[in-house]
Amino acid sequence: MPLPGQIPSLKMSNNTVWRLLRHNISAGQIAGYALASFVGLAIVLTAIQFYRDVSSVWNDDDSFISKDYLILSKRVEGVSGLFVRSSASAGDTRFSEQEIADIASQPWARKVGRFSSASFNVYAKVELGGSSMGSALFLESIPDEFFDVTPKDWTYEPGRSSYVPVILSKDYLSLYNFGFATSRGMPQVSEEVIGMVPLKLSLSGNGRQEWADARIVGFSSRLNTIAVPEEFMQWANKEFSETPAEAPSRLIVMLDRPGDPQVESYLEEHGYETAGDRADNGKAAFFLSVVTTVVIGVGLIISILAFFILMLSIYLLLQKNRTKIHDLMQLGYSPAQVSRHYHLIVIAVNAGVLLAALAVMLAASAWWGAPLRALGSEPASAWLTVGIGIGLMLLITLGNLAAITRTIRRSFYA
Amino acid sequence: MIENIELKRVLPQVFRGSEKEAPVKDSELWLRECVVFSRGSNYIIEAESGTGKSSLCAFIYGSRRDYDGQILFDGQDAAALSIDRWCELRRRSLAYLPQEMRLFPELTVMENVMIKNRLTDFRSGDEIRRLLSRLEIEGKADERAGRLSVGQQQRVAIIRALCQPFDFLLIDEPVSHLDARNNQAVASLIAEEAGRQGAAVIATSVGNKIRLEEFELMRL
Q1: Higher confidence at residue A205 or residue A339?
Q2: What is the 3-state secondary structure (H, E, C) of chain B?
Q3: Is B128's Cβ below 8 Å from some Cβ in A?
Q4: Residue B134: pLDDT band by 50, 70, 90 thresholds?
Q5: Contact with chain A for residue B129, Cβ under 8 A
Q6: How far apart are CA B185 and CA B42, in angstroms?
């Protein structure tokens, strides 16, 4: 006649241990923790994803919210600049090495680039169907990394390259298309058409003169200038300039945090000007980052509180079951064997909470994804946020598990 | 395997300061330079209540550490053993029947025994059933332990303690609630199991001694 306990199957005995240990587990407490933890984590993850999605709007260079670049120049006072042309006294509107170093050392400045301008004469000529138009021009160059566009062929090797690539401010094209062309009854042109127009540049100075072919290869909305590659500028300045290279009068600064109020006060203090109204756009970004930080902070506080709720109910549960836990270890059960059952609950609950929070985050991201796309911006990938969620939950879970193991080991001795 | 358990000047911390008074003064165990329990022998420790016999068992079994002096397992200080090592000893070397038995009242008799046997995988279900029947509680196998009489619980706890290999069997007042006939049954079962494993039995008693045939009597 077989007895129920005759088969010492692991499963049955495992269940026996579990039946002992699950005593006093409060479904209400676990549900309370799960809810609080879910709310906290969902807020954190959703806020992070929102920040990432929305900031992708101004990581798009062409976007309506300008990226974190500033173009600095000094204020032109009175008419002093009109009469004086020697580098010594015109130093007013130029940045000295010391000033540049000071800007670069500011906490908000990630990188500083210099505009180098042509110190020789440039005359550009367009020949179309026999007739030709021409104008005196100015050229500038900045390091490539500060461009918002990277057209192909943006290189120049003296003697090798067949033409000089030029990047034009988008504003100039608009000025021509919507100002000049419409009022004069001339044809409006697209960026593509302009790119096909052959230009001839006359470079002169230092007693020499040379013609060079040029082509407009791109339009920048960040830079209001006529830009050529730095290699070309160095070469041309060496060939045609009568004076040694001058200090730059304009700087481009890559900012660490868009719209940081420190920037504004710094510019104010030193009497620098920025091009356009880009700094205002940066303020929106700054405001967004502040709001996001606050929301993430609130979410984190909720998560931390939830963590303590769970810790508290774990301690309570283990305290209530202390005798049973102690007795099991008296029989030779190791703390690990006893902890395992509680570990499994915590892992299951936390995994559930994580999945639910991730689902909320993804749903929310999809919800605001449509209007963002309508603004012409692709929402950021959710992988980083998912990773952060997993990392946070892993941290919380490890904390819980360690607390359980520690408490159970403490019950080992009477 | 543990051959010898040595007690060197062991004293429960509650007796600190009363070293010159009874019961410590007259004890054959407390504060003695060296007391040795060896595998293969039986010991009955006779004591009045309140002299610390349950404490002695708990010290040797590693569930309490509030003593001065040293307990050595083959020369190794028991106080230095890790928790995992203790767990291993409790499965392979040290068997213990606490005075309060510590059965789980919500589990059946069989489950109470199996919860130990599962760890050691020492006995088959048939063997366990034979042990139950030998102590005349086979009919209670599916009864919840909490509903048994104290005498019945004592017998279940003894069987549970025997569900493992051991070098030393610590039994704290094993027969306090048993009549003479059951005392005899328990004693012969324990003597048989200990003899088969070449183990030592350390039994405490306040009056009703387990009826082992050969033993060394010590006064606590």
Answers
A1: A339
A2: CCCEEEEEEEEEHHHCCCCCCCCCCCCCCCCCCCEEEECCCEEEEECCCCCCHHHHHHHHHCCCCCEEEEEEECCEEHHHCCHHHHHHHHHHCEEEECCCCCCCCCCEHHHHHHHHHHHHCCCCHHHHHHHHHHCCCHHHCCCEHHHCCHHHHHHHHHHHHCCCCCCEEEEECCCCCCCHHHHHHHHHHHHHHHHHHCCEEEEEECCCCCCCCCCEEEEC
A3: yes
A4: very high
A5: yes
A6: 17
> pLDDT by residue (tens digit) across B88-105?
999 999 999 999 999 999
Identify the three-state secondary structure at position A226: strand
Contact of B144 with chain A, judged by CB distance below 8 Å, is answered with no
User: CA nearest A17 in B: which residue?
Assistant: B115
Per-residue confidence at B32, pLDDT binned at 50, 70, 90? very high
Which has more pLDDT, A231 or A75? A231
Tell me whether residues B125 and A6 touch, CB distance under 8 A: yes
Has this prediction a pTM greater than 0.90? Answer: no
* Total structural domains within chain B: 1
Contacts of B125 in chain A (CB under 8 A): 2-3, 5-8
Distance from CA of B118 to the nearest CA of A (A): 6
Hey, are the CB atoms on B65 and A12 less than 8 Å from each other? Answer: no
Give the CATH number, domain containing residue B205. Answer: 3.40.50.300
Query: Shortest CA distance to B159 belongs to which of B169, B144, B147, B146?
Result: B169
Whether B189 contacts chain A with CB within 8 A: no
Which alpha helices (H) appear in A60-125, and where do they start and end? 80-83, 97-104
**Nearest-CB residue to B102 (from A5, A6, A327):** A327
Q: Closest approach of chain B CAs to the CA of A58, in angstroms?
A: 58
CB contact set of A115 (below 8 Å; sequence gap of 6+): A140, A141, A142, A225, A248, A249, A250, A251, A252
**Min Cα separation A412/chain B (Å):** 7
On whether any CB of chain A is under 8 Å from the CB of B117, the answer is yes
> If DSSP codes are grouped into helix, strand and coil, which group holds residue A133?
strand
Predicted confidence (pLDDT) at residue A4 exceeds the cutoff of 80: no
